[in-house]
């Protein structure tokens, strides 16, 4: 459903072109200082406007509706809403199944009642709620530093050239984002089913466009031998010589950095000609998508990835006896 | 915790060298035919004995304790237990943190009270419960075919030679397993947080040794353009020309095959010399591991991967209104 | 936490004197017609203004923020917010632990960070969210009729005189509300822990001021013999001669009416003189409560009781395979 | 479903005449000392054999299958099983809907696949698992004392005479059990939906035969005025002059004793003549029940009531940040 977490639980709601998007955060301890400014930094990191991102720019001012009093969390659920102001619904008037998007599945799953405007509830705009919850989650896991960054675009580390090429061709391009969480206590994660990898990956795959995740040496591990892969413990803190495990053994943090990478597919919305069906099952060819899009959605992923990582770790932190 | 699923929920328990391992399956509809023979096939696929797998061979006879009456599920919780018979605990007498294993984190997380014998609750032996639940889950999603197989060992498709080399060197080797679920209805998966990828990956990372997962073109997507990656719909069933999405858009099944691959790290237990610490924080060097181990644990993953996929899909199936 | 339900899940948020109160409803099937008018009837039933209820009258206009499009549910989470407009915070400036209220426990549990204004998150005003969710839940269980009414105030069926006496004495008075749900299918409820009684009582005790619940003949059962209490089945529909079980056997609906009664304590807020402590642990005597209060909060319970009953039954309905 | 609890979670399974009944306990902290003897006292309190209880006497030896090592909890799930040894299935050969029992609803809900022997999964025998989990839960909430006792049978405090009369008439009789938990910390319970009353009542109504619950002055509150009912705080510990609230304000413990009472219906199984239908919808009249039964099931409720109270409080205790 639209909630995630056990003891630190976020519930997300909203549609791209509806009244607002928002999130309700339950299980936040009382006494954490939160001012409006706390949200600004990460919200602006998520914003579009840079090359390769959509020109749809919204003020994205978070309105706190509950759970914060005198600039501190109260222990009651925190609801934060962001109004949708810059919605150009005419772009989406005709319901055609945009290639790569959820339009087709949404139409079928919800029996024709889905809000189709801008992807409705499936829109990437909902990640704004994740970023807001992430700001609070980062304060809960406050000694842990979480940092995500793009490490590859279109298979290359020359990001600019890859993006320029995509823009020139009315096309889009994928990328890889790496996230490192450092200063990790030993013992986060719960066997059997709530391993750190399970909980983080569950949260990560809620971010639209993510198609893969790997921890530590990840898919490279499949080519390695045990002697190469085993991380030898060097002192009683649990520090290891190498970190092929990505800081996790048996699903539990071992005190070394949590490291993982995610694969971000190229933005599905492209201006280049494609073909598809519309709601009446008529073939539409050529299909040309009008609207404002990100040439490389991976560019906007890092702050969202940090947010869901913080949310996942905050939940695991609050599960300890 | 040790439960997974909302409407079809499995709860796993047991230790490698304790009385038994088992699983309780809640939410199974009544009237599904289950005989002892139903379990045999998948349990024997999981068994060791082949080259590259541990010589620890146990009868692994499942005992149904509840929930099945007159060879049919009753709707009440099904508990199935498998006794541990072939436990050579003397192999594990001294508590040394075996490299790559959970011994260190288990000791710290559980404050010295963990059962250390054979990895205790962290042992791969617990996957027997997953296989048992998978047998039932496969019957629930009965029109869906789920098939997993090894596609690469040690970076190569010449599996024999990769395994032989590992055995010769007292070493181990990793591999990649691919799972394909076909004949999928449109509409499984729940936004925002219970996307098919989220739910499957959550379950998959509970299998020991898995370090990465990718859906459809996965990490390759990160190198692709939108024009290459977008799967064009060709008819009203939702069939697409290509299947880069791995059968999932916006977290929801689109009717095409669900395809994903997992990276399996090399078995941590190897006979080759390593170094580590023991429980008293003394350096142990050289450290030589005695016991019975799999040279390539990936060989035993396919049936377990099918099982957790079936469990995840059964849960999603039972969430529809 | 602040969520209730498995497949039909409501998450409540807000404070009495904060920006707004609201609720998010997840798991609502698509295609249910909802207009603003749908909410009006039950919201106005909950409203104060009648004799025995607080003169705090607010417009209580529900604003739908998500999940409804073209006057139909979309299948996405529905968030409805009601602004707080008539908040007279000066009434609550000094933090004194009002007798019978949650002020003391809230202060301690949330380490001094609770929002104390009007009871904050503990306020009966939050039941507005329940009523809103109840309107939708009633549509989900649409063939079931749910009707609650006061059957006793202050131990008497002469409600007026009991209330008048309480008002004259600057006092308050308790009451009993009965709820009957009819046209019930056989088979709602889940063993072992989600019996109909368990799920309804869980929801009911979230309504402030409820101190007891009994199903069917309830506490009277404790005085009865088996011959008196057993309801004999008269036909294959499951209809029984008597309904001492309140429509529930073994936690499962048997097709007869679900009948239960709740005890509502007298409103804690009274103008009569009492004594208490303040936040600094100083004795305050006499303590006189200023503000606007209900002389008999039971008067406002029926519509809320119907709402939580509908919410509980909607959740149970959506759990069937 | 068949699980209860968030951070301390019990999952129950088994049937009256199946192989075994049992329970899996997840979220138990490591290091709690548990020997076989720990279970004996409460299991023997639950046992039958006294006047008014069934002559079905079973050894009821708990077998620990997992989660306990060297007589201490390990932090892994604890599964405890009790074999069914004394099952006289011939008593239940013909499927007739016993009045007051779940036979009819079980048959319908599970489409004819339910295990009908002795009530199957609906049998009171499953409360054995609750008692076992209660033993562990009591150790988790170790400073809290939980004590339940019968206070009324058949409306009278002369228990013997009420029971004798029921036995003489081949009849059964109901009763009231009171539970007091003392030495309670301030702050257990979670708004909005997980009030102490909500969580306890949810667990309590899973005990077969319970038809009502009231906290503090309970249904008597409905007759009281605010001045009578409000408990005045007398010192900074939160101690109150009276305890009409039963130790709970706003759903949160206030440091005073938690007090509640439950109504236990008369045992449904009686030897006196009744009428009913069988599975083929034929009227059976007279219907005479053969088998071994409790004349007053309330006699066996206290230890089970303590157990579920301990389970509920253990879960709430482990939810604190």
Structural class of chain A: alpha+beta
Rg over C-alpha atoms of chain A, rounded to the nearest angstrom: 21 Å
> In which range does the helix fraction of chain A lie?
10-25%
Task: State the order of secondary-structure elements of chain A, H for helix, E for strand.
Answer: EEEHEEEEHHEHEHEHHEEEEEH
Major sheet characteristics of chain A:
5 strands, antiparallel
Q: How far do the termini of chain A sit from each other? A: 27 Å
The spatial strand order of the largest sheet of chain A comes to 1-2-3-7-4
CATH architecture of chain A: 4-Layer Sandwich
Oligomeric grouping of the chains: homotetramer
Describe the secondary-structure layout.
Four copies of one chain form a homotetramer.
Chain A: E1 3-4, E2 9-14, E3 20-26, H1 36-46, E4 62-66, E5 68-69, E6 72-73, E7 78-83, H2 103-109, H3 127-140, E8 145-153, H4 159-168, E9 175-182, H5 196-204, E10 210-215, H6 218-221, H7 226-229, E11 248-249, E12 252-253, E13 258-264, E14 274-277, E15 283-287, H8 301-317
Antiparallel strand pairs in A: 1-2, 2-3, 3-7, 4-7, 5-6, 8-9, 9-13, 10-13, 11-12, 14-15
List keywords for this structure.
homotetramer; alpha+beta; Chorismate synthase, AroC fold; five-stranded antiparallel β-sheet; four-stranded antiparallel β-sheet; 8 helices; 24% helix; 23% strand
What does this structure look like?
Chain A is of the alpha+beta class and 321 residues long. Chain A has a single domain, classed as Chorismate synthase, AroC fold (4-Layer Sandwich). In chain A, 24% of the residues lie in helices and 23% in strands. Chain A has a 5-stranded antiparallel β-sheet, covered by helices on one side. In chain A, strands 8-9-13-10 form a 4-stranded antiparallel β-sheet. Chain A has a two-stranded antiparallel sheet with strand order 5-6. In chain A, strand 11 and strand 12 form a beta hairpin. In chain A, helix 5 packs antiparallel against helix 8. Chain A starts with a strand and ends with a helix. The relative contact order of chain A is 0.19. At the A-C interface, strand 2, strand 3, strand 4, strand 6 and strand 7 of A face strand 2, strand 3, strand 4, strand 6 and strand 7 of C. Strand 10 of chain C pairs antiparallel with strand 10 of chain D.
């Amino acid at each position: 459903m639209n909630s995630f977490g056990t003891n630190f639980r976020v519930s997300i709601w909203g549609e791209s072109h509806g009244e607002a998007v928002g999130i309700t955060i339950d299980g936040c301890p009382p006494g954490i200082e939160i001012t409006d400014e706390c949200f600004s930094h990460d919200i602006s990191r998520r914003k579009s406007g840079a090359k390769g991102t959509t020109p749809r720019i919204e003020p994205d001012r978070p309105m706190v509706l509950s759970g914060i009093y005198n600039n501190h969390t109260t222990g009651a659920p925190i609801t934060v809403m962001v109004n949708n102001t810059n919605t150009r619904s005419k772009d989406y008037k005709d319901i055609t199944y945009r290639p790569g998007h959820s339009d087709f599945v949404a139409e079928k799953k919800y029996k024709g009642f889905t809000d189709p405007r801008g992807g409705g509830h499936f829109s990437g705009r909902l990640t704004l709620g994740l970023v807001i919850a992430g700001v609070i989650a980062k304060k809960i896991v406050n000694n842990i530093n979480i940092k995500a960054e793009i490490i590859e675009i279109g298979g290359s580390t020359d990001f600019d050239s890859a993006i320029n090429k995509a823009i020139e061709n009315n096309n889009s391009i994928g990328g890889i984002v790496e996230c490192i969480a450092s200063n990790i206590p030993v013992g986060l994660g719960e066997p059997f089913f709530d391993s750190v990898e399970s909980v983080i990956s569950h949260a990560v795959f809620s971010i639209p466009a993510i198609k893969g995740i790997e921890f530590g040496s990840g898919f490279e591990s499949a080519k390695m031998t045990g002697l190469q892969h085993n991380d030898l413990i060097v002192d009683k803190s649990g520090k290891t010589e190498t970190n092929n495990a990505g800081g996790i053994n048996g699903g539990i943090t071992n005190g070394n950095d949590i490291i993982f990478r995610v694969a971000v597919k190229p933005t599905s919305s492209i201006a280049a000609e494609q073909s598809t069906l519309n709601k009446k099952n008529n073939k539409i060819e050529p299909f040309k998508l009008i609207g404002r899009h990100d040439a490389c959605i991976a560019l906007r992923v890092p702050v969202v990835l940090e947010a869901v990582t913080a949310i996942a770790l905050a939940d695991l932190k609050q599960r300890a006896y």
